[in-house]
User: Fold this.
Amino acid sequence: MLTITNHTLEKLEMLLKTTGYKVRYEKGNFKTGACLLQHSKVVVVNKFSGLESKILAISDLARDLDMDINLLDDKQLAFLHQLKQTKLEL
Assistant:
């Protein structure tokens, strides 16, 4: 299970950055906590969302993204495996 901490958020951000995605925090009109810009590797997160919402939104996106696992180190690979096995409930 994922814990709701800044460290977990940082791990999620680093996982995406390592696989070539950019994470940006911006204000927007979108209702959800994050979105993936079409045809690019940019994840936009609502900067006004709470920590729980940010973690939930990024983890949901990370589960579904097609990431190159060859770019990940052992710890990140284990974290991704844990992420895909875990459903975060708030």
